Amino acid sequence: MTEKIKVHIIMGSVRDGRFNEKATFWIADLAKKREDLDIEVVDLKAWPFPMYNEPSSPSQVKDGKYPSELATKWAAIIGKADAYIFVTPEYNHGMSGVLKNALDFVYAEWNNKAVGIVGYGSTGGSRAVAQLRASLPELQLASVRTAVHIMAPWMLVDENNQLKAGALDSYESSANTMLDQLTSWAHALKTVRA
Ligand SMILES: Cc1cc2nc3c(=O)[nH]c(=O)nc-3n(C[C@H](O)[C@H](O)[C@H](O)COP(=O)(O)O)c2cc1C
Asked: Which residue has its alpha carbon closest to ligand 1 atom 30?
C-alpha cells in the first residue's frame, strides 16, 4: 500500500464568528473520507505570530532553526505535511493578512509541496485566490488547477451564524476534483523532495 499523504488544512481567518470554520470543517470532512489522505486542521488562532519581524530571511535558514522559537515550532509543524489546503477569505481583494504573514515565517518546509485552495467572498474569493497563487511559486509551492470558490458566504448562514443545511453541497464536485489533483501532485512531489 502506498503511504498516506499528510495534508494540513490551514485556516486563513482568526476573526470571531468567522465563516472560515464552516469552510474548513466542510473541506476537512470531505477530505477525511479519502483513505489515502491523513488530515490535520491548523488554526492560525493558535499561532500568535507578530507581524513578520525576523532578523534573517527564512530562505537563508538551514535545518529548521529559525531566529524565533515560534517560527522554529511553526517550521516543525509545516515540515510534517506533504500538501496543504489554504482556506482563505477575501479581504480587500486579497488573501487575509494573517495567512500571508504565516506563509512568510518559514521557507524550506514549504518547498516542493502541493497546494489546494478554498476561497470565499462575493466572487468566490477569486481575487484572494489569484493573489495567493501568485505568492506560492516563491515558496516553491505548487497550486493545483482547481480551487473551490464559495460565493457570498454570508448568504449561506442563518441568523445564528449556523451553516444552512446543504449550503455547501454544490461545491462538492469542485472540492473532489481539487482533492484528486492535490493527491496526485503530492505523490509526485514526494519524489522531487527525495
Ligand atoms: C476587512 C474585510 C475586507 C473584506 N473585503 C472583501 C473583498 O474585497 N471581497 C469580498 O468578496 N469580500 C470581502 N469581505 C467580506 C468577506 O468575504 C466576508 O466577511 C467573509 O465572511 C470573511 O471571512 P471570515 O468570516 O472567515 O473572516 C471583506 C471582509 C472584511 C472583514
From this structure: 91
Mean pLDDT to the nearest integer, 86-103: 98
Give one DSSP letter per residue of the chain, joined into a string: -PPPEEEEEEE----TT-THHHHHHHHHHHHHT-TTEEEEEEEGGG--PPSS--SS-GGG--TT--SSHHHHHHHHHHHT-SEEEEEEE-BTTB--HHHHHHHHT-SGGGTTEEEEEEEEETTTTHHHHHHHHHHGGGGTEEE-S--EEEE-GGGSB-TTSPBPTTTTGGGHHHHHHHHHHHHHHHHHHHHHH-
**pLDDT mean across residues, the chain:** 97
pLDDT digit string, tens, across residues 152-187: 999 999 999 999 999 999 999 999 999 999 999 999
Ligand 1 within 6 A of CB of 20? yes
Residue nearest to ligand 1 atom 16, measured at CA? 121
24 lines ligand 1 (CB under 6 A): no
Nearest CA to ligand 1 atom 27: 18
Going from the Cα of 70 to the center of ligand 1, the distance in angstroms, rounded, reads 28
pTM score: 0.98
